[in-house]
C-alpha cells in the first residue's frame, strides 16, 4: 500500500532537506526567462544551459586583468580586518586579533536545575531543559546600555539523528542507515527543536549564560501557542485537540527569524512539511494546498507516535504551521503567537524595520526553488514609549509579494482578499484563505519565481534591502532577477525602496553580486576585483547589517567539493568603489553551515551559530567528520553558538 520510500533510510536529513528544496513545487506559469528576455544582463551573464563547475575549462581570470581597480577597491573597503584563509578542516577560524568563544552547545544547561549533558543517556525530559540542536537564528536584546548584558534568543531548526544518538546509525555501503525509532527518541528530537531564550552577561571579559535568570526558557513543538490574526478560529485550523482553531501546539523547523523594535523574538517556521506523514483521503479539500507546500514530507517518524503529524488522522494540523511566531522574551510564561497576517509559507526568516511614518515593515523569503519574496506592512504604527501598544501590531496589515521587472523596477503586489484574482471564484472565501494558501495566491498575482529566497535584511538607514538567493540548480530559464541558469552559487539582490519608504509598492532593484568563484570566467561571478581568492563565496543564506550599516553574509552549502571551502561569515561592501568586495571573517568546521549572525548594538560583540558541524560524508554519532567543539572522544560533535569579540575590546572590523 505504501509505495513511499522512507528518505531517512537512505540519506541523511541534510541531504533530504537540500534535495526537497531543489525540486520546487511552483507549477504556476508565471514568467521566467523564457517570457522576459533580460537585455539588462544578457551580454554579461548569459551562460546557456546548466553550469557544472567540473565541466568548466575556461579559467581566464578577471582578477589578473584588473589589478589597478583591485587596489582602489581594497582601499575603499569599509571593513578593516585581515581575512581568514578559506579552506576546510576540523575546526573554526576567526580573523587575527579576534576571539571566537563557545557560548552555548547542544545539551548545555539552560536552567540551574538542568541535568548535565549525558549523551549516552539522553531523555526528552533532560533535553527540554537543555540547549537544543542545530542552532540557526540568533538575536540579542540588550537589558541595559553596557553592551555586556542581554537576552539571547536562538532557533533550533532541526535534528540530525545520525549524529545525536549513540548506536543508532550505521554505514551501509555508501549510505547512512538509521535504526528503529522509539517514542523516546522521537520525543528527544522534538524537545531539541524550537528555541531557547537565555539571559547572558559578560563576566571577567567573557560572555556566559545566566542560569538563574527569570527569562530563561525552552520553546519546543509542544509549547502552547495562540493562533492570532485573520486565520484565528478559522475552520481550516481546527483540530481534535483544538476545536477553537486558536491554540496551536509548538513550532517546527525554525530557521532564521528576527527581532521587533519592541523587543520580541520572531521565529520563522520553514520546512514544516517534513514532519508530517500519512495521506489525505482522495479528493480532500486540502490536497492542492498541501501539494503546493509539500505536505506530507515524511522526513521524520513523529507521526508514528503522535497522531497530529499524520494527515490521515488530523488533516488540518499542517495548516497550523508555516507561520511567523512572535515570542515575548521578557516573560517566560508568555504564550507565543502565530502571526497569521504575515502569511503561511516556508518562512526563512522575518526581519523588521520601522518606516519613516512609524509603520513596521517585515521582510520574509519563502525558501524553496521558484518561490517568492514577501513583505508585510502593519496598519498601525510603532509607539516607542508604550511597549504594550505594539504587542499586537503584527495582527493587522498588508502582505505583499514581489514582482521583479527586467528594467530594474519592481512592484510589491498586495495579497488582499477580493482584490484581483483573490476571490471566491478562485477558492479564496476570505483573507484567511489567502493567508493559508499564500503561495497559491502569489502564483495568481504573477510574482517572480526566485532562486530560493533566504534571509532578507533591510538596512534601517539607507532604504535598501538585501535579499539572499541561495541557489537554484534547477533553473533552466534565467530572468532578470535570477540571471543564471543552473544557478549553483546564488546571488544577492539589493532593493532600493522608493524614497526610502519601506512601505512603498514601487521600488527598484539590482543584483549586488553573483556568487561563486570569480577566477572561473564561466561561473559568471561578479564580486569586485578586490575580492581575494579567500573572499568569494557561494550560497548566501543568512545576513546581518551591523550598527555601522555594513552587510555581513553567512553561507550554507560551501564544501571542499563545491567551492574548496567551508561555509563562513563574509563582510560584503555595498558602497562606493569597494561595492561587491567580499572578505572572509570566520569559517566553520567541516560539515557545518554558518548561521546567526547578530551584532550587539555597539558592534563590539558578534554572535554566530555553527549548525550541523561534522555532517559531511557518511557521518554518524560514532564517526562524525569532526568532534568540534569539544574534541573529546566521549563527546559527540555539537552545534554551538560562538561569540566573537575583538582582543583588547573595540568595534568589530572598524578603526
Ligand atoms: Fe533553513 Fe532556508 O534554510
Ligand atoms: Ca537558512
Ligand atoms: Ca538576518
Ligand atoms: Ca539554507
Describe how the helices and strands are arranged.
Blueprint: H1 7-10, H2 13-23, H3 39-45, H4 62-65, H5 67-76, E1 93-94, E2 98-105, H6 124-127, E3 135-142, E4 149-156, H7 161-164, E5 169-172, E6 175-178, H8 183-192, E7 194-203, E8 206-209, E9 217-219, E10 224-228, E11 247-249, E12 254-259, E13 265-269, H9 287-293, E14 324-327, E15 337-339, E16 351-354, E17 359-365, E18 373-381, H10 387-390, E19 397-404, E20 409-414, H11 431-436, H12 438-445, E21 453-458, E22 464-469, E23 491-497, E24 506-514, E25 540-545, E26 551-555, E27 568-572, E28 582-587, E29 593-599, E30 605-611, E31 640-646
Parallel strand pairs: 10-15
Antiparallel strand pairs: 1-28, 2-31, 3-4, 4-7, 5-6, 7-8, 7-9, 10-11, 12-13, 13-14, 14-15, 16-17, 17-18, 18-19, 19-20, 20-24, 21-22, 22-23, 23-24, 25-26, 26-27, 27-28, 29-30, 30-31
The structure holds MU-OXO-diiron and calcium ion (3 copies).
Amino acid at each position: 500500500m505504501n509505495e513511499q520510500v522512507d528518505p531517512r533510510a537512505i540519506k541523511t536529513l541534510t541531504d533530504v532537506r537540500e534535495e526537497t528544496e531543489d525540486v520546487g513545487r511552483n507549477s504556476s506559469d508565471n514568467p521566467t526567462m523564457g517570457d522576459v528576455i533580460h537585455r539588462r544582463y544578457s551580454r554579461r551573464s548569459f551562460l546557456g544551459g546548466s553550469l557544472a563547475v567540473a565541466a568548466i575549462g575556461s579559467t581566464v581570470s578577471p582578477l589578473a586583468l584588473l589589478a589597478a581597480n583591485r587596489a582602489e577597491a581594497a582601499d575603499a573597503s569599509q571593513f578593516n580586518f585581515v581575512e581568514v584563509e578559506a579552506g576546510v578542516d576540523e575546526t573554526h577560524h576567526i580573523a587575527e586579533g579576534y576571539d571566537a568563544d563557545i557560548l552555548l552547545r547542544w545539551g548545555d544547561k539552560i536552567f540551574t536545575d538542568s541535568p548535565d549533558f549525558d549523551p549516552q543517556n539522553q531523555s526528552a525530559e533532560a533535553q527540554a531543559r537543555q540547549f537544543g540542536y542545530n542552532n540557526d537564528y540568533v538575536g540579542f536584546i540588550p537589558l541595559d546600555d553596557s553592551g555586556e548584558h542581554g537576552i539571547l534568543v536562538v532557533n533550533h531548526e532541526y535534528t540530525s539523528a545520525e549524529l545525536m544518538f549513540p548506536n543508532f546509525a550505521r554505514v551501509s555501503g555508501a549510505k547512512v542507515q538509521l535504526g528503529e525509532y522509539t517514542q523516546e527518541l522521537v520525543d528527544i528530537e522534538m524537545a531539541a527543536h524550537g528555541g531557547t531564550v537565555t539571559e547572558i552577561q559578560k563576566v571577567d571579559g567573557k560572555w556566559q549564560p545566566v542560569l538563574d535568570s527569570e527569562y530563561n526558557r525552552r520553546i519546543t513543538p509542544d509549547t502552547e501557542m495562540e493562533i492570532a490574526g485573520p486565520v484565528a478560529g478559522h475552520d481550516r485550523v481546527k483540530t481534535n485537540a483544538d476545536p477553537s482553531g486558536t491554540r496551536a501546539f509548538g513550532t517546527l523547523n525554525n530557521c532564521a527569524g528576527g527581532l521587533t523594535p519592541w523587543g520580541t523574538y520572531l521565529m520563522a517556521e520553514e520546512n514544516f512539511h517534513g514532519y508530517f506523514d500519512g495521506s489525505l483521503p482522495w479528493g480532500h479539500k486540502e490536497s492542492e494546498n498541501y501539494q503546493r507546500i509539500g505536505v506530507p514530507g515524511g522526513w521524520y517518524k513523529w507521526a508514528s507516535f503522535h497522531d497530529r503529524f499524520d494527515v490521515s488522522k488530523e488533516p488540518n494540523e499542517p495548516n497550523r504551521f508555516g507561520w511567523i511566531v512572535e515570542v515575548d522574551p521578557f516573560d517566560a510564561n508568555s504564550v507565543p503567537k502565530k502571526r497569521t497576517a504575515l502569511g503561511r509559507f516556508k518562512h526563512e526568516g522575518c526581519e523588521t524595520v520601522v518606516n519613516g511614518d512609524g509603520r513596521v515593515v517585515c521582510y520574509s523569503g519563502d525558501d524553496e526553488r521558484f518561490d517568492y519574496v514577501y513583505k508585510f506592512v502593519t496598519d498601525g504604527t510603532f509607539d516607542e514609549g508604550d511597549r504594550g501598544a505594539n504587542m499586537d501590531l503584527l495582527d493587522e496589515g498588508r502582505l505583499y509579494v514581489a514582482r521583479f521587472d527586467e528594467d530594474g523596477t519592481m512592484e510589491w503586489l498586495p495579497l488582499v482578499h477580493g482584490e484581483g484574482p483573490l476571490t471566491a471564484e478562485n477558492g479564496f472565501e476570505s483573507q484567511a484563505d489567502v493567508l493559508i494558501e499564500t503561495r497559491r495566491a502569489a502564483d495568481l498575482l504573477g510574482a517572480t519565481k526566485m532562486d530560493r529566497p533566504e534571509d532578507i535584511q533591510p538596512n534601517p538607514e539607507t532604504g535598501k534591502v538585501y535579499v539572499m538567493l541561495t541557489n537554484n540548480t534547477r533553473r533552466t530559464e534565467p530572468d532578470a532577477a535570477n540571471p543564471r541558469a543552473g544557478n549553483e552559487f546564488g546571488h544577492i539582490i539589493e532593493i532600493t525602496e522608493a524614497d526610502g519608504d519601506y512601505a512603498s509598492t514601487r521600488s527598484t532593484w539590482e543584483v549586488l553580486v553573483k556568487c561563486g568563484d570569480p577566477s572561473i570566467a564561466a561561473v559568471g561571478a561578479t564580486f569586485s576585483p578586490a575580492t581575494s581568492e579567500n573572499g568569494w563565496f557561494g550560497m548566501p543564506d543568512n545576513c546581518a547589517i551591523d550598527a555601522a550599516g555594513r552587510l555581513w553574509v553567512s553561507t550554507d552549502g560551501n564544501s571542499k567539493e563545491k567551492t574548496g571551502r567551508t561555509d563562513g561569515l563574509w563582510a560584503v561592501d555595498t558602497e562606493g568603489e569597494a561595492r561587491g568586495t567580499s572578505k572572509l571573517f570566520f569559517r566553520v568546521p567541516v560539515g557545518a553551515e554558518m548561521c546567526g549572525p547578530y551584532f550587539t548594538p555597539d558592534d563590539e560583540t558578534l554572535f554566530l551559530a555553527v549548525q550541523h558541524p561534522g555532517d559531511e560524508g557518511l557521518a554518524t554519532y560514532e564517526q562524525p567528520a569532526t568532534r568540534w567543539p569539544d574534541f573529546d572522544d566521549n563527546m559527540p560533535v555539537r552545534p554551538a553558538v560562538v561569540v566573537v569579540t575583538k582582543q583588547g575590546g573595540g568595534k568589530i572590523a572598524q578603526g
